[in-house]
C-alpha cells in the first residue's frame, strides 16, 4: 500500500519565537525524513498522525502531541487523513523543554491555544495579544506530562500490510488462516519507512 509524499513549503523562515502552520493532510500522505533548525511540536486537531523518529514510531490523536528538539530527523504522515498543526519554536523560547523526542498529553487549554495561534498567525499584533498566546503555549508545554513511548511496528512486508489493515479496520473478523491466504502486495520503497506505530497504554 503506497504512501504519497508531501513537499515541505519553500523559503521557511525561523520562528520568532513561535510559528504555527496549519495544513490538511490527505490519507496515506507523509513528509519525507527531514530536520529543522528549530524545535517542533507535531499535533493534529483532528485525525491521527504518525511520527517516525530515531527508529521509533508514535501515533498521536488530538489528545497527544510529539515534541521534537532542534535538528532531530523525523517523518510525519497519516494513514486516514488529519488536520495538521505544526508549532515551530525557537531554541531560546524552548529552553527547558526536553532534549529528546517526547510524546506528551495535550490539555483542553493547550488545544484551544494551538487553534487560536493558528487563527491569528501572520496578523498584525498591535496590542501584544499574540505574544500572550505564545507565552501561554510555552507555559502549557512546560507543564505537559510525558506519556510512555512507542511499541515496535513492522516497517515492510506482509506483516506491515496486516497491521495497517487492522489499524484501518479494527473490526475486521478475519483470523490467522484467512489473513495467511491474502495476496501479498509489495510496497514502494518510500512507503515502507513510514508505518503506523502504537502508543503504549
Q: How would you describe this protein?
A:
With 201 residues, the protein is α+β, with helices and mostly antiparallel strands. It has 4 helices and 12 strands. α1 (108-120) packs antiparallel against α2 (129-143). The chain is elongated.
Spell out the blueprint of helices and strands.
Blueprint: E1 4-5, E2 18-25, E3 29-34, E4 39-47, E5 49-53, E6 56-60, E7 64-68, E8 74-78, E9 82-89, E10 102-105, H1 108-120, H2 129-143, E11 150-151, H3 157-168, H4 176-180, E12 198-199
Parallel strand pairs: 1-3
Antiparallel strand pairs: 2-9, 3-8, 4-7, 4-9, 5-6, 5-8, 7-10, 11-12
Summarize the structure.
This protein has 201 residues and is of the alpha+beta class. It has helices spanning 108-120, 129-143, 157-168, 176-180; strands at residues 4-5, 18-25, 29-34, 39-47, 49-53, 56-60, 64-68, 74-78, 82-89, 102-105, 150-151, 198-199.
Amino acid at each position: 500500500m503506497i504512501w504519497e509524499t508531501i513537499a515541505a513549503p519553500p523559503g521557511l523562515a525561523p520562528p520568532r519565537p513561535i510559528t504555527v502552520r496549519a495544513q490538511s493532510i490527505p490519507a496515506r500522505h507523509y513528509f519525507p525524513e527531514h530536520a529543522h533548525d528549530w524545535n517542533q511540536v507535531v499535533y493534529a486537531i483532528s485525525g491521527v498522525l504518525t511520527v517516525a523518529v530515531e527508529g521509533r514510531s508514535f501515533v498521536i490523536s488530538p489528545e497527544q502531541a510529539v515534541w521534537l528538539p532542534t535538528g532531530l530527523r523525523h517523518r510525519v504522515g497519516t494513514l486516514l487523513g488529519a488536520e495538521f498543526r505544526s508549532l515551530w519554536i525557537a531554541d531560546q523560547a524552548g529552553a527547558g523543554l526536553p532534549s529528546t523526542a517526547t510524546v506528551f498529553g495535550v490539555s483542553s487549554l493547550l488545544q484551544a491555544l494551538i487553534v487560536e495561534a493558528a487563527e491569528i498567525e501572520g496578523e498584525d499584533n498591535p496590542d501584544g495579544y499574540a505574544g500572550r498566546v505564545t507565552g501561554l503555549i510555552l507555559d502549557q508545554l512546560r507543564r505537559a506530562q510525558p506519556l510512555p513511548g512507542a511499541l515496535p511496528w513492522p516497517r515492510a512486508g506482509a506483516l506491515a500490510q496486516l497491521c495497517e489493515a487492522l489499524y484501518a479496520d479494527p473490526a475486521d473478523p478475519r483470523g490467522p488462516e484467512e489473513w495467511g491466504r491474502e495476496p501479498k502486495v509489495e510496497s514502494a520503497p518510500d512507503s515502507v519507512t513510514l508505518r503506523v506505530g502504537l502508543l503504549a497504554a
